[in-house]
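Q: I'm building a small set of examples for a reading group on sequence design. Run inverse folding on the following structure and report the sequence directly after it, with nothing in between.
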């Protein structure tokens, strides 16, 4: 037993080592490496164990019970030698077994390490194969998913295409049906219209026949009465002729001339209670001191305080040229009893106080229109007696002209000059003038108006792009009137710009709406209202077309927002100028009070208050509204149920602004 213990211990160490490193946990973990290692190892261990068992002495079957206090048997020298030899052999065998066990353990450890490395490499290769396999599987799955998605997409596209095709076919069928119905309605309407026209023509023919019959009867009666009156006149004429033939002729009285040496005349001022006295005189044209020279430049010898007008402007020069070319001598000689007509008025210093334009026109006629100057000289000589002068007053005077020298002393000569150049009648108001000027603006003329993005109407009217528009408007006025609207360089003055703007608003928005808009824009002080003026003016061409379509019945009558726009802007201007009341407060007032605006106009008022600071938004709104009116259907168009398909102005407003109105 003592001999087997070390061997068993070595075997236990080997088994534990092998168990730890070379025994798999489960049967599924067994590989060829385990088989290759375990097969020779087990065979070798079994063989070694068998050899050791053969070499070891056999144990007694049953040890003899120890003899208490029995003396040890005495061995002879052979037995002792055999015993010693046996012990030495056992020790040597034990040492050899231990060495072999150690070598086997070391070899087992090395084999286990090698097996671990081989297993790790195999596991790594297996993992790489698994990863490659998984990657290929993922790629195949992705490819399958992509192909499946593509097939789904293709099916959806095919489905959508088929649906679109069916929808298109339905729309075409619907459109064809609507067109057929519209054609039938149009045919029916044409038939009814034809019947109405025939009935109308029949009634008109009947009325015309009756009217012609009455006219013929009336003409016959009038002819009879005219013939009787003619006969009566002829008889009376013959009777008067007979009486004149028997009566001696009576001399006709000659016109009573003004007493010689009494060339004094009078004229009424702007106030008829003021009467001024003048003396007619014949002076040389070159002696008169006018406010401007023949070239139009300012005359340094003239007192500028006596000339309230700017005679150096291009319009004034054109006025002088027109007056010289179309000179009417009687207009400069006859006595009209007025300060602004007749012969020019001068002071004692020969400065012209009233009639600078007339005097310059005489000088221009002398230089460039000899026939007009000769006619003036002839008319002057023919009317000398009528003004209390004689031929002697022309003696020694070169280029004689008739003037009125002021006799009445005035405290303020400048004030008299202003009064002499003031219009003698009450002038029209801005709105009255705008109503007259609106007739000067035709649809073709307003279509030429070009207002660029971000440009005010005032700036646009002074650009070359609108020169044709300005000439078309100014060309319908007289020279005197157009001169008041132009600057020195021939472009529009502020007065001209105001007149054109007011006329355009009255022309586009007819009636009270246009007058209200013109008054609002011309009188308003708020900058936002000026922004509306700019935006609305820029949209006038398209707005004019839209309002024309409504006015002529080509679009529904209730699509016009002219009155709503004018009332809303008028209220906005009044609220901006008033203190203590905002737009929200005005709109939120109780309906128990009488309101100046409707619910829709209140919605416009609120929206205008929001966009009032952006001329671009204002222009876009009015442009979109005009385009929506142009795109609207004819009011006679009906749907399948006979209802009109024309939208309302509330619906157009909601569509343009995106606001939901309760009244839509």
């Amino acid at each position: 037993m003592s001999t087997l213990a070390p061997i068993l211990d070595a075997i236990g160490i080997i088994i534990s080592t092998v168990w730890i490193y070379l025994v798999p946990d489960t049967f599924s973990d067994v590989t060829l490496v385990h088989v290759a290692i375990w097969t020779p190892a087990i065979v070798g261990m079994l063989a070694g164990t068998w050899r050791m068992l053969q070499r070891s002495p056999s144990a007694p079957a049953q040890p003899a019970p120890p003899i208490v206090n029995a003396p040890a048997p005495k061995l002879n020298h052979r037995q002792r030698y055999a015993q010693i030899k046996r012990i030495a052999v056992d020790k040597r065998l034990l040492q050899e077994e231990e060495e072999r066990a150690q070598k086997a353990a070391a070899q087992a450890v090395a084999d286990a390490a090698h097996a671990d490395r081989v297993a790790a490499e195999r596991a790594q290769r297996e993992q790489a194969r698994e990863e490659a396999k998984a990657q290929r599987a993922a790629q195949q799955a992705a490819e399958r998913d992509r192909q499946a998605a593509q097939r789904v997409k293709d099916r959806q596209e095919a489905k959508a295409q088929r649906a679109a095709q069916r929808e298109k076919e339905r729309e075409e069928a619907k459109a064809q049906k609507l067109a057929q119905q519209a054609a039938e309605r149009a045919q029916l309407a044409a038939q009814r219209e034809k019947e109405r026209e025939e009935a109308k023509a029949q009634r008109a023919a009947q009325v015309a026949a009756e009217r012609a019959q009455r006219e013929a009867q009336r003409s016959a009666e009038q002819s009879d009465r005219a013939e009787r009156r003619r006969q009566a006149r002829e008889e009376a004429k013959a009777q008067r002729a007979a009486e004149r033939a028997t009566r001696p002729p009576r001399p006709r009285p000659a016109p009573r001339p003004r007493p010689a040496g009494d060339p004094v005349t009078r004229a009424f001022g702007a106030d008829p209670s003021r009467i001024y006295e003048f003396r007619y005189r014949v002076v040389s044209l070159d002696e008169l001191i006018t406010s401007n020279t023949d070239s139009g430049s300012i005359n340094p010898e003239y007192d500028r305080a006596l000339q309230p007008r700017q005679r150096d402007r291009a319009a004034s020069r054109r006025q002088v040229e027109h007056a010289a070319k179309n000179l009417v001598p009687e207009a400069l000689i006859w006595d009209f009893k007025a300060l602004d007509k007749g012969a020019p008025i001068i002071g004692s210093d020969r400065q012209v106080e009233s009639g600078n334009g007339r005097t310059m026109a005489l000088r221009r006629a002398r230089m460039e229109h000899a026939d007009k100057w000769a006619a003036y000289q002839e008319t002057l000589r023919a009317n000398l007696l009528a003004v209390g002068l004689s031929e002697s007053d022309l003696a020694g005077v070169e280029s004689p002209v008739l003037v009125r020298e002021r006799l009445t002393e005035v405290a303020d000569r400048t004030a008299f000059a202003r009064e002499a150049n003031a219009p003698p009648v009450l002038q029209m108001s801005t709105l009255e003038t705008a109503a007259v000027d609106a007739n000067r603006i035709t649809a073709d003329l307003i279509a030429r108006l070009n207002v660029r993005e971000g440009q005010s109407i005032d700036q646009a009217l002074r650009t070359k792009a609108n020169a044709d528009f300005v000439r078309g408007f100014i060309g319908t006025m007289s020279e005197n009137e157009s001169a008041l609207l132009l600057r020195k360089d021939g472009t529009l003055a502020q007065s001209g710009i105001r007149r054109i703007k007011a006329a355009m608003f009255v022309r586009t928005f007819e009636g009270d709406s246009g007058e209200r808009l013109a008054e609002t824009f011309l009188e308003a002080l708020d900058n936002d209202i000026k922004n509306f003026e700019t935006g609305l003016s820029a949209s006038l061409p398209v707005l004019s077309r839209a309002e024309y379509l409504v006015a002529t019945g080509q679009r529904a009558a209730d699509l016009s927002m002219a009155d709503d726009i004018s009332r809303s802007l008028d209220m906005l201007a009044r609220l901006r100028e008033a203190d203590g009341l905002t737009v929200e407060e005005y709109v939120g007032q109780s309906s128990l009070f009488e309101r100046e605006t409707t619910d829709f106009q209140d919605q416009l008022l609120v929206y205008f208050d929001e966009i009032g600071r952006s001329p671009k938004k204002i222009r876009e709104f009015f442009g979109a509204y005009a385009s929506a009116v142009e795109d609207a259907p004819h009011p006679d168009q009906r749907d399948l149920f006979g209802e009109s398909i024309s939208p309302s102005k509330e619906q157009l407003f909601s569509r343009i602004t995106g606001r939901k109105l309760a009244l839509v």
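The longest strand covers residues 275-284.
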